[in-house]
Amino acid sequence: MSFRVGILGATGAVGQTFVELLDGHPLFEITALAASERSAGKPYREAANWIGGIEMPENVGDMIVQACETNLKCDFVFSGLDAGVAGEIEGAFARAGYPVISNARNYRMEPDVPLLIPEVNPGHSALIDRQDWGGSGGFIVTNPNCSTVGLVMALKPLHDAFGIDAVHVVTMQALSGAGYPGVPSLDSLANVVPHIGGEEAKMAAETGKLLGALTDDGIEMADATISAQCNRVPVLDGHMECVSVRLKKPATAEEVARVMDSFEGPLAGMGLPTAPSQPVRVFTDERFPQPRRHARAAGGMQVSVGKVQDCPVLGVKFVVLSHNTIRGAAGGAILNAELLNAQGRLVHRTEAVVAA
Amino acid sequence: MSFRVGILGATGAVGQTFVELLDGHPLFEITALAASERSAGKPYREAANWIGGIEMPENVGDMIVQACETNLKCDFVFSGLDAGVAGEIEGAFARAGYPVISNARNYRMEPDVPLLIPEVNPGHSALIDRQDWGGSGGFIVTNPNCSTVGLVMALKPLHDAFGIDAVHVVTMQALSGAGYPGVPSLDSLANVVPHIGGEEAKMAAETGKLLGALTDDGIEMADATISAQCNRVPVLDGHMECVSVRLKKPATAEEVARVMDSFEGPLAGMGLPTAPSQPVRVFTDERFPQPRRHARAAGGMQVSVGKVQDCPVLGVKFVVLSHNTIRGAAGGAILNAELLNAQGRLVHRTEAVVAA
Amino acid sequence: MSFRVGILGATGAVGQTFVELLDGHPLFEITALAASERSAGKPYREAANWIGGIEMPENVGDMIVQACETNLKCDFVFSGLDAGVAGEIEGAFARAGYPVISNARNYRMEPDVPLLIPEVNPGHSALIDRQDWGGSGGFIVTNPNCSTVGLVMALKPLHDAFGIDAVHVVTMQALSGAGYPGVPSLDSLANVVPHIGGEEAKMAAETGKLLGALTDDGIEMADATISAQCNRVPVLDGHMECVSVRLKKPATAEEVARVMDSFEGPLAGMGLPTAPSQPVRVFTDERFPQPRRHARAAGGMQVSVGKVQDCPVLGVKFVVLSHNTIRGAAGGAILNAELLNAQGRLVHRTEAVVAA
Amino acid sequence: MSFRVGILGATGAVGQTFVELLDGHPLFEITALAASERSAGKPYREAANWIGGIEMPENVGDMIVQACETNLKCDFVFSGLDAGVAGEIEGAFARAGYPVISNARNYRMEPDVPLLIPEVNPGHSALIDRQDWGGSGGFIVTNPNCSTVGLVMALKPLHDAFGIDAVHVVTMQALSGAGYPGVPSLDSLANVVPHIGGEEAKMAAETGKLLGALTDDGIEMADATISAQCNRVPVLDGHMECVSVRLKKPATAEEVARVMDSFEGPLAGMGLPTAPSQPVRVFTDERFPQPRRHARAAGGMQVSVGKVQDCPVLGVKFVVLSHNTIRGAAGGAILNAELLNAQGRLVHRTEAVVAA
Predict the structure, then answer these.
(1) B120 and B179 share a domain?
(2) Does ipTM surpass 0.90 in this model?
């Protein structure tokens, strides 16, 4: 029996990716699309300026977009809301008893809110038990920023095997990461912009939390030092990152590559529909990975690594690629929901409501 | 009285940039264009598949391309030859008495060959005196790889002021750096390629030589540790580089920015025609520099720096932009020639020949 | 029982698209991959420089590439060969008894060779009966040039309903149409090239044959006058074409749009796996179609039309988009094979060989 | 003695191009920069988000932007205002006695307002005498839309030599034509948008007026039938147009090419600083013109033509390229001002004011 799903911010770029990825999902069925007042009341086909390269799924086109009010008929909501409104609306939904699985940044660094990558820190979902939304049964779970997720998935096996002392990362981020209308074409065509507002700080903070340890007092941040420099490049989808790492226990490039490529992670054998069978793939062809060729690997959920080599300054370095709107946004949130379901944290709210 | 100039490899991408930049030059006049046998005998207009965004200067179109043989009527030659043939041909010209001012990589790391950036190490031209081409009077001088020059011009003032212990650089390099036909469009449009053959090693080695000290035994390499990761991005002209530096004597980001922005260099007051009045410009607007907007600053000879900030891992970091086919190739070689002239190392060969 | 399929030119751009599209095909299974001597003997994974945005299907990676010799174990071959070698090799395969379903241009305009678009002229396959390859049972069938197919699919319903007197078409063609390495990136990034060798003549000739009538003497060319101007634009996949038509029987833009959008074509109800349920889709949103959004409609097999409006000069005009490497090459050839199978023209050659 | 020039809309994309092109102009000196209330009072350096590839001229950076009020200290104004406000503001300046040389579309089709291309219809400036702005001495002159100007400059010599019966044009227009922020990068990168609002109607109407005849009753529109289809392509600068023409008196492609290439136009010998010595250049290399290579020919003021060939449908066809922000906007307006000066229609307003 599948869960009924609502999407907050359904008409935006992230919301559209939720719609695209949930088409045909074995567990989750979209039953409510919500967006701003401007869109409410219109069929989704008209309300959403569909920007994807794949067509809008047939069945959602005629659904009427609703306002983001807490009367949506669904078991939980995905949130693709803009940060400007996500704080208030997501809080209202949690207070009304909805699980909120959010891509917005607002609650990511809250001590009691899990910042989750299922392959990295699935146990952090225990923070849910520390949340208090007036006894509603609702909660909020978040996924990291699109530039953080690829980095941390590559770092996790190294963290486990060798310990991470310091990370230096330079990103080359795709245009779709800025949403729509996003970057003006005169700033992007044949150009690089060496700045993405707030991104460098987010990468540092979120990495510390994701690699942190769950304790009785919440998350203890990992003690790795992180330095990020973020750039926007003329790529449609897929964030590339040049990562150099100083390990606590030195390792050769070969060892590092082997540990990443063989990383199974805690999801192995769980059968989560959206989980890639291999979380991190390491290329030996030095021309790879490339955004146009590999961003969509395993449906956009696999992280690609290449050019693993010694770094004379920090020890080891490599290139990471991950799909920013799938693994880095909607797909990551969907995998979070699949994890929560496997952990027994999602309920069919009709029953829940009846019980209440 | 201007010098007569020959261009070796005149029909290639670098050769064309020499032709473009020498149009109207106050000191140097093109009197010979030389290229492969395939082009020899044809008017330049037909032999060269002109790829620039500015039209071929009128006067060179009708010049007949010659073979790369040592009978060119000129006082010295610029070489834009491919590395596959540059070693032999440049050696032959030096042996025949020509000063060879080369952009090719072949002789760059030879102990007796100056690898020159006039603003950085003008005195290294003294290595010329150690060269022996059979008493011909000829010599070879080189400029660095297109990805090295921007980096080293930004590093030089820091090297002088604080000492450089380690450098970590990630490049985002323009397509024109690969020449023509160069990168296939299916590899470049909306894509990033995380590999440029040989580039990472070149950046490390050349930086060490450029920042090295001239001693009685030749150049003593600088002891800075260099780590480079090179990427090709869909930009036409202008290499962007994210640079992080560990200084020997720590300095704040503000101090680092001030030292770079106020760097005058040894050319101040010399009036070299191609030298930018300000070698390194530091932007405070965090969106800058950008290749499309700033690569052509000061005719493509100025290096642009931005986003100077603390690096929690290495100390300080910033972004560098330099024009790869001008400052990083033909323009750099022309400035080298202007320096050599100012140093009295160029002669009008007719007299020289008469004298001989 | 599925057919065993060989692919000639399997390592090239078109060959790779055959491999990609045949992955999981319900009727056709790849049993032989053939390419040039240089590739023969290598695993496909090594021989092919895989350029697609989707990964090479697992099962073909280890297949050993063979030479293009007529001992391939398969029931028929798809040919993605370059025109330089296709004439000879395809003829040899036909002579050896293989049906050859070719994307190459060599035989397209031969009087006895069908130039096929299943939705347009399925009956032209009867030309096969006029071919004589020494009684081998082999034959050759071709699909049109990538720029012709979208045009003709849009014209066919108009031809049937109103008659076509003259066609004026301006193309904006994707880079993948030039194969790999194809267009140098310095010619394509932020640029338009107003010339594609031979393309304009091909569009005119092929359109005449495709819309022609099958008579006892072969194909009688359609009498429409065609004028084409072909341009290369910086798009990855999907040829856009601005088409203006002078109809024999005038019609309004609305009538023209309706006739195209409701075109069912002769494949309706046949259940060919690769056939789109709607061959031509007409958009009313004047911003559409666009290559990035719509080229992959119906798996890249649907032709998209938009901006249908009156043309003060020729009568009616519109924009057509079709996927050049799918509908315009490998996908079109696969649909041809599906049609031939439905027409009973493909046999399982083991039996055939036994019978012989 | 040079004229003092004000720029209305100085901070916008067109305004910035005025500033760039007027740097060092021999006749016109910027003395006033005016923009919206939001910019007024700020130094131009801060008020303008400078988007050009060449740096902001030094001297204007510190000028204080003023409001668009009719107290600007200048002899005439260039207007780069948006159409939303240009009607009112330009009218106010004309009424206050300023000559207004506008790039906005608001007054272009007014019967008494000259729509001017100096090489095409310089005599249309006589319409100024029909304008009545309350005896102020002010007037308004306009230049055509960026997509019209290249077309009409190529058509003019054909109109004179053979007469033009019908024109079919398909445009491939650069992103800079949409201003800033303009086209979102997700709509432009690797994409084509087949629609530009209002552009097709503008091209038809403006062409009729530009090629029209000046009579005692104003302009008699040319009787050519025009059909335009406009597309946005991922090019930075330079509109490409595929033009097919039905001439009243048939001519071969060779004759058409010769007439265009040898077109001198009415400016020959007048010495206008911005006028290209050859207004229309015809390429014989079928790969040319291309936006990246040729848009900036003659400082962006020359129109490039190529691929002149027979059109089986309309008679003759060719490709036209013109720089959209220079020839098609600010540069065209500056040339208009130079023409008006040569015609004695500009005065030094200090004297004018004193006289009044």
Answers:
(1) no
(2) yes
Chain C: residues touching D (Cβ < 8 Å): 166-168, 170, 172, 187, 189-195, 204, 225-227, 229, 231, 233-236, 240, 242, 244, 246, 286-293, 306-307, 311-314, 317, 319
- D interface with A, Cβ–Cβ below 8 Å: 51, 175-176, 178, 180-190, 234, 236
Q: Please report where in the chains the tokens 């028929």 appear, as a residue.
A: C76
Q: Indicate which residue of D124, D159, D239, D294 is catalytic.
A: D239
- Are C193 and C300 members of one domain? yes
Q: Give pLDDT tens digits for B55-84.
A: 899 899 999 999 999 999 999 999 999 999
Q: Tokens at residue D36, please?
A: 């919206």
Specify whether the CB–CB gap between B239 and B151 falls below 8 A. Answer: no
Instruction: Report CA D64 to chain centroid distance, whole Å.
Output: 27
- Residues contacting residue D269 through CB under 8 Å, at least 6 positions apart: none
Counting residues of chain B whose pLDDT is more than 70, the rounded percentage is 98
**In whole angstroms, what is the distance from residue A84 CA to residue A82 CA?**
5
CATH number at residue D119: 3.40.50.720
Same domain membership, residue C304 and residue C199:
yes
CB contact under 8 A, D234 and C231: no
What integer pLDDT is reported at residue C1 of this predicted model? 77
Beta strands in A59-204 (DSSP E): 66-67, 76-79, 99-102, 139-142, 164-173
Q: How far apart are CA C156 and CA B61, in angstroms?
A: 50
Question: Residue A291 belongs to what domain range?
Answer: 146-323
* Residues of chain C in Cβ contact (below 8 Å) with chain A: 50-55, 189-190, 236, 292-294, 296-297
Contacts of B297 in chain D (CB under 8 A): 55
C154 and C262 housed in the same domain: yes
Instruction: Write the CATH number for B194.
Output: 3.30.360.10
Reported as a pLDDT band with limits 50, 70 and 90, residue B52 is confident
Active site residue D239: yes
Residue A225: its H or E element: strand A225-232
Tell me: do D61 and D174 sit in the same domain. Answer: no
Which pairing describes strands D303-311 and D315-322: parallel, antiparallel, or unpaired?
antiparallel
Q: What percent of chain D has pLDDT over 70?
A: 98
* Predicted confidence band of residue C52 (pLDDT cuts 50, 70, 90): confident
A-B C-beta contacts closer than 8 Å:
139
Number of domains into which chain B is organized: 2
Residues 6+ apart with CB under 8 A from D197: none
- Paired residues of A77 in beta bridges: A6, A100
pTM across the whole model: 0.96
Residue D325, token pair as written in the block: 């922000």
Burial of B191 (0-12, 13-18, 19+ CB in 10 A): buried
D146 is catalytic: yes
Co-location of B103 and B208 in the same domain? no
- Distances in whole angstroms, Cα of residue D93 to Cα of each of B162, D7, D56, D337: 58, 12, 27, 16
pLDDT for B53 equals 77
Local structure of A289: helix, strand or coil? coil
Which helix (H) or strand (E) segment holds residue B225: the answer is: strand B225-232
Name the minimum distance, in Å, from the CA of A235 to any CA of chain D: 8
Task: Give the Cα separation of C129 and C139 in Å (integer).
Answer: 9
List b or e across B318-346, with b for residues whose CB sees 16 or more CB atoms inside 10 angstroms: bbbbbbbbbbbbbbbbbbbbbbbbbeebb
Looking at the structure, do residues C116 and C186 belong to the same domain, yes or no?
no
- Residue C246 carries which side chain, given as an amino acid letter? R
Do D181 and D319 fall into the same domain?
Answer: yes
Give C178's contacts in chain B (Cβ within 8 Å): 185
Q: Is the peptide bond before B289 cis (omega within 30 degrees of 0)?
A: yes
pLDDT value of residue D354: 41
Among residues A151, A79, A144, A153, which one has the least CA distance to residue A116?
Answer: A144
